[in-house]
Amino acid sequence: LGEIEQELLRLENKARSAAVIILNEQLIAFVVTELSESIIREELRRRLPSYMIPDRLIRLDRPMPCLPSGKIDRQSLIALLPTNHIEKSKTIITTTDLASCSTNEINININPLDIILSAFQKTFSYAHPTANDDFFLDLGGHSLTAALTITELRKSFPSIAVYDLYKYKTAAKLAEYLIQLPNDKKEQQTNNDAITFIKPSFTRIILCSTIQIIVLIILSGIASMEYILPYIIFTLILSEHSIICACFGAYGICVIVPLFRYAFAIIVKWIIIGRYKEGDFPLWGSMYIRWWIVEQLRNIAVQQTLADSPLMNNYFRLLGAKIGRNVHLSSIHCAALDLLEIDDETTISSDVHFQTAFVDDYTLKFRRIYIQKNVYIGSRSVISGQTRMEDYAELNDLSFLPPNTCIPSGEVWHGSPATYSHQATSKPSFIETTNN
Fold it and tell me: How far is CA 13 from the centre of its chain?
């Protein structure tokens, strides 16, 4: 709080005194200044992170109340708050009333704008939100208040997401978006509630756990070979040969063991699974156990040591992936490589996740991902199954490509979920150089 107060006092030397308090999980700043609230907020955004921007700014036209000791009297500041602003207008429907209404009653009898303004009013109790107030710039919202507001709005609009508030930042735009939602999306929540899932039986869980325990014991032995075998070989060779020979023998084992892990993971994958195919399989069933075993063997092989090397491409090809020419793969994650296809001249940055296999609704699901030529995928992005990126498409860093999505040729997408950003400026050209 002291840092915020110092920044308020630095406002072009026009703030004579300032104080910040926390009330009802909100930052409230009192400042004696002639500057307008918009100028104050603009200056604070340049100097402070978003979570330190006060939710409410109150300009005082009187000296800051002080205690006999000379310190600011913060209790008196609370008494200066406009308590009449806290009470909701009778024309705005309260959230309690909204919760008691059915979804159909809300959609028919209540204006979505009133519902949104009511939620805004509950989040910012000392403000007077209007239809055109920006949730972040005008009301001082941040990630926490956005989450709280969306939680409140979901009582009336189950399908609304936090992302919607970041995209439609005013109550008017958000209401317009909610009104134009297709009926199938509005009814999606109701339809999902009607779906019943077959939970795995207790016997299947016990059987799967027993097999996993046995496999983990075997895998622990395989993982320890890298540390135990060099000592054993060193001791055996040293008993009959020189220490130099013993050192070379131990070093050879250190080289051979990782290669053995790669080969063992490839062989076991083709023996117990063969080639992955798209489909749904019961959780903790036969396919799940086999898939899990292969993934544990791949983890022991530490495939990330091959990242940013052509060796990674060859290793993935041996595991079933279709990798084109001149493809650059960094440290990527893909649990069913047979369902991943990457065409020529594509670049995949670090820590990219291809969700060709995932668990959902007590089901292990396998889905295909197709990446065409000259595609770029940024670091720490997530590509869902049943997706496609066409030639020269780009997905920026920290983005999430949801299922059943296709990025058209030459388009740049970003965000979570990813949406269209702009058209790629130009297609890359490669210049061959020759030595003079």
Answer: 41
